[in-house]
Design goal:
With 122 residues, the chain is mainly α. The protein has one domain. The protein is 67% helix and 0% strand. The radius of gyration is 15 Å and the shape is globular.
Length: 122
């Protein structure tokens, strides 16, 4: 996995942990603010560099699918998601995508959603 993919995987994972209020090196009084900030980032429709949508697209994930799955998980389930597990699932998703015969240069949004649903259980 290239360094850029590792970086954005870590950004996404940190946002997940912030949303759950876990693995934070912050005083307890700051946790609600960090959770609110993570929720705002995840719910944002911005698609600029570093936004949730941009991060998902750069990782070949559908933002709506990731959001839906995040908000269905419990705090314990979100906390159990590790960097290695997320990277493994991203690799598997990319492998599935690269193994498919491509008629067009880009994968349709529907196909991205299917791979994300099958390959990334977050």
């Amino acid at each position: 996995m290239n360094p850029e993919t590792i970086l954005w995987t870590r950004v996404l994972l940190q946002a997940i942990w912030d949303l759950a209020g876990i693995r934070l090196n912050a005083p307890p009084r700051d946790i609600p603010r960090l959770q609110a900030s993570a929720r705002a980032w995840i719910c944002s429709d911005a698609d600029s560099l570093g936004s949730f949508r941009w991060t998902c697209y750069s990782l070949s994930l559908d933002p709506a699918t990731v959001r839906r799955r995040l908000f269905r998980k419990t705090k314990a389930e979100l906390g159990a998601l590790s960097e290695a597990e997320l990277q493994d699932k991203l690799r598997a998703t990319r492998r599935e995508v690269s193994d498919q015969p491509q008629v067009e240069e880009t994968i349709s949004l529907t196909t991205q959603q299917e791979f994300a649903q099958d390959g990334l259980a977050i």
